[in-house]
Amino acid sequence: MIINESKNKRIVIKIGSSSLTSRLGDISRHKLERLVDEVVKLKDDGHEVLLVSSGAVAAGYRRLGCLNRPTSLAEKQAAASIGQGLLMESYSERFISHGYTASQILITRSDFSDRDRYHNARNTINVLLDRGIIPIVNENDTVTVERLKFGDNDTLSAKVAGLVDADQLIILSDIDGLYTDDPRKNPDAKLLTKVSEITPEIEESAGEPGSAVGTGGMRSKIDAVKIAMASGISSFLGNATSPNIILKAVIGKARGTYFVPGKNEFNLDTKRQWIAFHSGPEGEIVVSNKAKQSIDELKSLYPTGIRYVSGHFKKGSVVRIKDLDGNEVGLGVSNYSSKQLIKIKGISRDELADVGPEEAINNKDLVCHTRLAVPIH
Ligand SMILES: Nc1ncnc2c1ncn2[C@@H]1O[C@H](COP(=O)(O)OP(=O)(O)O)[C@@H](O)[C@H]1O
Ligand SMILES: N[C@@H](CCC(=O)OP(=O)(O)O)C(=O)O
Questions:
Q1: What pTM did the predictor assign?
Q2: Which of 34, 80, 140, 297 has the fewest CB atoms below 10 angstroms from its CB?
Q3: Any idea which positions bind substrate (predicted)?
């Protein structure tokens, strides 16, 4: 199949456990190699490809001595510790047989919540992509604890797609796309081929995993797509077993669901993506109704609109912004420490002249929740 389009794309492909495993639950070499062979064709055509691949637990649990996929955290982590190496070995062997090199990247949420580490990951991945390598990302299962988990590889893939400014996110699963209901439970469910807005009906239709090896189900795929949409990235969801699914998805000819990003104001730049999806807010400020309104309009926040400040934070920390009823309205990088803000809250811009930067939060460092239909943190 000739897939070359005028522009070479940067493509992130998420491969779920169910797309790599046999009916017994262990890794199917045949399935893995078929997908790698498609990626190789994309590479031959000049596209940059990054994989986010699950499968470590599936590849390792039998050698750990478990009959079924384990459910306890420690056993899953032990299985992943065995399986991650085996998984990478299978990928590497196949890519090398085609003359390409794969690299392994294991990430936890805490790696991304530090802005320097976030940038570092981005720089490293850019070097790999520039040199024609295929980075293969998975969650660093052996060291994550529930609290620090990305939660699943679906949202991880969307965050990685944002990190590397991907042109497209392709999520492969064991289902043909997003249906109006879980098709395994409702035979009347209809496939949605194009989605430009995640409506409450779509949220409701998204259910649990369909197989014993899947973890996120449609719920986490929708969360992932929302993150991609907010980052201005088109996504595709389709069935890994469908022939040439990746090649067809890239040219818009695959059976499945295409998700197209919404209006421009949702297209978060990398800094806002970091604030929205990765940062760990260190304090809270409560703002007046008028200030809330200007945040809704994505305007900078001035000390005059701040009513209360809580927590101890430094200049440059991310803080939660709440309205007078206690609802979170956004997140932003504070130009002042909590100590300074307590002193200057409520003060007008004229009176502030000598204290420091006028704005408490510049609008470039502001993420407004009403403009962002995405779960934060
Ligand atoms: N609205 C829906 N549309 C499609 N699939 C759905 C829906 N709701 C729930 N599902 C289930 O989600 C499953 C895919 O998620 P999951 O098992 O986690 O796969 P993976 O391992 O590929 O991440 C499907 O097999 C399907 O049974
Ligand atoms: N990191 C884990 C998988 C986590 C996960 O999201 O799995 P899946 O829902 O199959 O994509 C592993 O490699 O087994």
A1: 0.87
A2: 297
A3: 54, 141, 153
